[in-house]
Each structure stands twice: as C-alpha cells, then as structure tokens.
Specification:
The chain has eleven helices and seven strands. The protein has 297 residues and is α/β, with parallel strands linked by helices. It folds into two domains: 209 residues, Glucose-6-phosphate isomerase like protein, domain 1 (Rossmann fold); 68 residues, Helicase, Ruva Protein, domain 3 (Orthogonal Bundle), CATH 1.10.8. The strands form two sheets. Strands 2-1-3-4-5 form a five-stranded parallel beta sheet, sandwiched between helices. A two-stranded antiparallel ribbon has the order 6-7. Strand 1, helix 3 and strand 2 form a beta-alpha-beta unit. Helix 2 packs across helix 7. The longest helix has 20 residues.
C-alpha cells in the first residue's frame, strides 16, 4: 500500500481552538462545537457559484431522463445514499432516478468494508453496473478529496461523457481536478482531529441538499416553496398533501381532500384541478403540455 501524507489535508490537521477538548465542561464543549459548525455555512458561500453552475447544467440532463448518481465511501457515501433515498418521498422520484453508491455496497451503510474505498476499479465497476451514459450526472463525495473509489468512478464517468461533479472539504482536491464541477469547501480542521463526519459531513449534507433540491425545483417538482410531488406514504404526509392543496388553491380542507382523492393522491394534479376547475384527465394533459410545471410557461 502506498504512503498517503494526510498531514497536508486541512481536514486531518489539529484544531487549535479545541486542543483542550477532553477537559471542557458539557456547556463549554457545546459552545466550541457550535462555533466551529458556524464556519461551515460561510465556507460553502464561497463555493456557491460552482454549486449553482452544477445545478444549472444538471437540470436539462435530469429532465431528459438522466440520473443523479452520488458516490462516496464511509460518511460521504452514507450521506449520498441518504439524500438519494429522501428524494423519493419528497419529490416523487423513483429509486432509479437518484442513486447513492457507497464503496462496499449496502452492507457498508452499517459497517465499514475493509479496503473498498481504496479501490479505483470498484468505483468504475459500480458505474459500469449502472450502465451510465452521457445523459447521467455523477457526483463524487470525499471529505479528503482523494478517495480512490471516488477517483475511479469520476474518471470513468468522464470517459463516457457523463456530467461530473465533486464535493471535497480540502482545497485543490484530486477529485475536484478530475470532475467538470469541482466544489472544494474549506471547512478547516475538525474539532475532533480527523473525524470528518463532523464539519465535513455537515458541509457535504448542506451541499447535497442544495443540489438535489435545486434540480427538483428546476424540473417543476416545486410550486412556490411547496413540495407538490410529495408522496403521501404515511398519515403525516397525507395531511401535508391535503394542506398543500388547500394552501395553493385557497379551498377549505374538505374540498382539498376531495381533490386529493379524485386525483388519486397526486398532489400536483389535484392543484391543477383546483386552480383551473379541471377533471383529472384534463389536469394531466395540462401538466404534460407544460413540462410538468403548474405555472404556465
């Protein structure tokens, strides 16, 4: 195994503000951790144009059948899997439209798979298995910015012409140089040296929130600031769905619930029915002709 100089990575260096971490009282510990966490949003702001560019280039690809594919190892991989999984109930995507890959497969969600993250070929193989094309969007996630699994995946994604992005927490990262859209967020040393599930993980989660939500807004799955393609898979989401219909159409809850039922639990369809006094088929035709947007283009 080749030697890796971790000391050059800011995420692996010691934080001068937390050298006495093991001697702090609970309130002192919470205070210093909160202070360090506040630096994350500031660091992300410096990369906002790069994030916006990635979103803008991703929207037409996703709209035309491309997939959003995250890949990472350890915490980074788990965050990608989490964001992908939550797109299904929030935006009504299918599990095949937003995919999270983690080095070592599903079992690595719970327990680390030895050596998986150090294998470039494994990253390539996971994308080959998905039959990626130039329609797809592949985003590599690695706090260090050098994880071989992610490097291998991004190199292959570039070869097939997929849109590539990278999220790292070290400036000048390897994956940032490989991807078309490299996002290097300088969060600085962790409060607990090398524990990149902390500030680095927070930064990654915030950026993934931006990317997936931004793409979904761009393809018409949001009206105003309401998630109109929410999937009502439990009682809470049913109530939320009816509330959204009522809010947009200015109808009382009884009428909103009736639309919800008539639309066969399709919130967006129910809203169009309520706004235009359409039946379900007419609402579906309206949405088809309007690229899925409630607002008229």
């Amino acid at each position: 195994m080749s030697y890796v100089d971790l000391n050059r990575l800011a995420t692996e260096q010691r934080n001068v503000n937390t050298m006495a971490l093991d001697r702090l009282s609970p309130i002192e510990f919470v205070t210093v951790m909160n202070q360090e966490d506040q630096k994350v949003a500031i660091a992300i702001e410096k990369e906002k144009e790069k994030i916006a560019d990635l979103i803008a280039e991703s929207i037409p690809l996703f709209k035309n059948g491309g997939r959003l594919i995250y890949m990472g190892a350890g915490t980074s991989g788990r965050l990608g899997v989490l964001d992908a999984a939550e797109c299904v109930p929030t935006f009504g995507t299918t599990p095949e439209q937003v995919i999270g890959l983690i080095a070592g497969g599903e079992k690595a969600m719970i327990k680390a798979v030895e050596g998986a993250e150090d294998d470039e070929q494994l990253g390539k193989d996971d994308l080959i298995h998905l039959n990626i094309t130039d329609k797809d969007i592949v985003i590599g996630i690695a706090a260090s910015g050098r994880t071989p699994y992610v490097v291998g995946g991004l190199k292959f994604a570039n070869e097939v012409g997929a849109l590539t992005g990278a999220i790292s927490c070290n400036t000048g990262s390897d994956i940032g140089k490989i991807a078309r859209h490299g996002i290097d967020v300088a969060v600085g040393p962790e409060i607990l040296t090398g524990s990149t599930r902390l500030k680095s993980g927070t930064a990654q989660k915030l950026i993934l929130n931006m990317i997936s939500t931004g793409i979904m807004v761009g393809i018409g799955k949001v009206y105003q600031n309401l998630m109109i393609d929410v999937q009502p898979t439990n009682e809470k989401l049913v109530e939320r769905s009816i509330g959204i219909i009522s809010e947009v159409t200015a109808l009382d809850r009884v009428k909103a619930k009736a639309l919800f039922e008539e639309s066969e639990h399709q919130v967006k369809v129910a809203i169009v029915m309520g706004l235009h006094n359409f039946d379900k088929d007419s609402a579906l035709e309206y949405l088809k002709n309007n690229d899925g947007f409630i607002r008229a283009n």
